[in-house]
Amino acid sequence: MKGSFYRAKEVTRITEIISVHNLSYAYAKSADAPVLSDISLAVHQGEFVSLVGTSGCGKSTLFKIIAGLLEPSSGELRLHEISATAKRLGQVAYMPQQDLLLPWRTVLENCLLPWEIKRSRSKAEVTSQVIELLERLGLAGIENSFPHELSGGMRQRVAFLRTLITGGGLLLLDEPFGALDHMTKREMHSWLLEILDELDKTILFITHDLEEAVLLSDRIYLLPGRAGGSVEEILVDLPRPRHSKMNYEPRFIELRAELERKLYDNTAV
Ligand SMILES: Nc1ncnc2c1ncn2[C@@H]1O[C@H](COP(=O)(O)OP(=O)(O)OP(=O)(O)O)[C@@H](O)[C@H]1O
After folding, report:
1. Lowest mean pLDDT among 85-89, 121-125, 231-235, 253-257
2. Which Gene3D superfamilies does the entry mention (predicted)?
3. Could you list the residue range(s) of the whole structural domain that residue 149 is in?
4. For residue 182, is it within any domain?
5. Percent of the chain with pLDDT over 90
6. Radius of gyration, alpha carbons of the chain
7. Could you tell me the end-to-end alpha-carbon distance of the chain, in angstroms, rounded to an integer?
């Protein structure tokens, strides 16, 4: 549905895909100053949830814990309502801040990387899935291009596609549009909102851009700063379909202001 921002799927808020209870984490180098202290939050099937917080408050660290790259110092993490074990590595699709496309590999070869690690399906099957997804993501015909031949927005879409190929219904997207210019970012928002429904994924998204958080999310969590405090939640009750000029509407402006105020209150030292 081009030019619109409709997500027909209902978020049921029944099945918890991610559930974090009183989770804390400290890096070994600074064991007495935990990055995350007693964090609790939940993400339900089909939701788009953003994590917002000041730089260094531990957003990427929390992603790494959910993805299985780090283990919590204390507290509980449940994925798909099952207590998460060290075996979760590779089961959660995680897109880090940089696109990390390998420059010497074509788009197709980059997108086959998750398959090379898992090899749970045939190469022909995954290749045809990549070609089909390239078409669905507006990138038809670029499978033999190299990353340096693509625009910033195209590279991010390829990195997103590679994340999808990892499989599973849960995507962790760490500031995927942070490095893009304003116009490209807006195009990416339109694009993402258009394909979300088709993809039928649950998304946890990190951003520093408060408008982006309001435009895309069903809910937003504000993580406390290093000085401590609790996680705050904002329900984004804007109707869907959403559209790019929504940021001028009164409710959008109110939510944006509420988010900014809470962010300030939550992180002020
Ligand atoms: N491997 C590491 N070893 C020690 N400290 C680390 C390590 N990785 C991150 N940190 C520290 O942990 C804190 C949280 O980092 P993290 O990247 O999770 O924050 P963030 O909220 O994602 O920041 P940003 O918004 O700037 O990306 C920072 O103070 C960072 O310096």
Report:
1. 85-89
2. P-loop containing nucleotide triphosphate hydrolases
3. 97-167
4. no
5. 50
6. 19
7. 46
On whether residue 222 sits in a domain, the answer given is: no
Average pLDDT, integer, range 99-113? 91
pTM: 0.89
The finding on whether 225 has its CB within 6 A of some atom of ligand 1 is no
Q: Write the burial class of residue 33 (CB in 10 Å: 0-12 exposed, 13-18 middle, 19+ buried).
A: exposed
- The Cα 192–Cα 94 span in angstroms is 16
Identify the sign of the CA torsion 194, 195, 198, 202: negative
Q: Is 47 in contact with 208 (CB distance < 8 Å)?
A: no
- Tell me: the pLDDT tens digits for 27-73? 988 888 899 999 999 999 999 999 999 999 999 999 999 988 899 99
Number of structural domains, the chain? 1
98 in contact with ligand 1, CB cutoff 6 A? no
Amino acid, res. 209 = D
Residue showing tokens 């895909």: 17
Take atom 11 of ligand 1 and give the residue whose Cα is closest: 56
ipTM above 0.85, yes or no: yes
Return d(Cα 177, Cα 184) in angstroms, integer.
9
Burial of residue 222 (CB within 10 Å: 0-12, 13-18, 19+) is buried
CB 90 within 8 A of CB 133: no
Q: At what angle do helices 152-165 and 123-136 cross, to 10 degrees?
A: 140
Residues in the chain: 269
Determine the atom of ligand 1 nearest the C-alpha atom of 58.
Answer: 18
In a domain, residue 38? The reply is no
